[in-house]
Amino acid sequence: MARARALSAAAGALALAALVTCHEGAADSTAGVAPTDVAQAGDAPDTRPPWQRIDVPSLAACGICHLAVHDEWEASLHHRAWTNRNVRDETGDFAQAGCRPCHSPMPVLATGLDHAPKFRDFNQPDGVHCLSCHGLADGVAAARDLPDAPCRPKYTPAFLTAQSCWPCHEPTHHAFQEYDRSDAKALGLRCADCHMPPAADRPGRSHGPNGGLNPDFVKRALAWSCALEGGDVVVTLRNRTGHRFPGEIPSRIFQVRVDVGGEEPRYVTFRKPGKTETRADDRLDVNETKTLRFPVAADAKDVRVTLLFKPFPLLPDEAAFRIGEWSPPAK
Ligand code: HEC
Ligand code: HEC
Ligand code: HEC
Ligand code: HEC
Ligand code: HEC
To answer: What's the predicted TM-score (pTM) here?
Structure first.
């Protein structure tokens, strides 16, 4: 029954989505169209308000009116938290019950911002649903009150703090133990100030993808410079994120590659060790500036430094994100 409703709501959403596109992303382009109007004939209409629709896909619950936000979220890992291959492999397709709650969560504002969320035992493929973050008992959490909008946005101070990311990002992966020591936090930057920058093509904040799968976003992580000093190539790296770099997700790798003439390339690799590895965690620490020196012969030719970010461990260099490149200026 719930499934039939979900499917019909999704079908309705698609029909309405087609309608909405002629008014490019404006939420009020659907003013006057109640979600119930789009339910298919022969099926009981879903008369519930949007904030109660956590059992239907985010597209049907919210995306019908917030299509641009939906499309950003859909491309992010929040949407894929239940379906992505890495997670399914590591959790044995979620046979491990302890792994389920954050990958298919109930609304964190309802369960509390100081502990892990409750498992949402339905509509799991939606991952971190719009309502996992926005859901209130009688509306949606927002930066202002809009009592006349169909989803009843409510000004919710707790939702606008970094703590709203805590229930999922701290209990197992300790993002906040790093963030709490960061210059970013001292400067008053929240997680969302970096991870939800202003959207490029509409008012409001981007819902993704703003993480390790977006090369333009990854470039923001580092300030760097290179120079030739007394026979050494000197590479200086400064971590500008609010946590270690690479952040949190263990499959991400950062490498400095130095090529000199026809020699074998030299690498320095930064990554989080796997659970069974004895390797040290050599990622850049919060706020850290690190200097690397690579001796080169005085007559060395074709010196080149490349900064590589690999979202997946076995990626060849050609497929990595190039977040920086440098060669000494010609003499
Ligand atoms: C039937 C259409 C409709 C649905 C469904 C809907 N909304 Fe809205 N939403 C609106 C309108 C209209 C506004 C007001 C837009 C404005 O004034 O800029 C709004 C405003 C908002 C705001 C505040 C925006 C701001 O400018 O501060 C948030 C947050 C929001 N919606 C989230 C959601 C979420 C989450 C869902 C799904 C649970 C949802 N909405 C479902 C139509 C809808
Ligand atoms: C307290 C919330 C929470 C719980 C419980 C949780 N996770 Fe996660 N998981 C996250 C968050 C947040 C991320 C994204 C950031 C990160 O990797 O730390 C994530 C990311 C992952 C990733 C990386 C996904 C990718 O895109 O590569 C894997 C794999 C993963 N989790 C597996 C597990 C396993 C296995 C368990 C159970 C032992 C588990 N998770 C339990 C919150 C949680
Ligand atoms: C990971 C948590 C999270 C998820 C998931 C999420 N949002 Fe948001 N949303 C936020 C935050 C945080 C803000 C910005 C608050 C601020 O202004 O600082 C926001 C802002 C908004 C706004 C206000 C306008 C804007 O773009 O800034 C709308 C509308 C909105 N979200 C709708 C949605 C919809 C629809 C979905 C699902 C497709 C969704 N959100 C999923 C956290 C989330
Ligand atoms: C209800 C749980 C939950 C909340 C709240 C939450 N996240 Fe996440 N987040 C996750 C999970 C789970 C993943 C990992 C998904 C995966 O990789 O499978 C994730 C992944 C991410 C990623 C990687 C996304 C990408 O597309 O590369 C970023 C960045 C992120 N979260 C930032 C935030 C920020 C900022 C907030 C607060 C505004 C927040 N999250 C709130 C559960 C949550
Ligand atoms: C000053 C900006 C900044 C702040 C503040 C910040 N981050 Fe990040 N974060 C980044 C950048 C840039 C990256 C991409 C490079 C990397 O992997 O570290 C990143 C990476 C991540 C990732 C890995 C995403 C992926 O797909 O690999 C997660 C998860 C994440 N951040 C969560 C958080 C959370 C949660 C907070 C708040 C506690 C936070 N970040 C605060 C800039 C920031």
So the answer is: 0.92
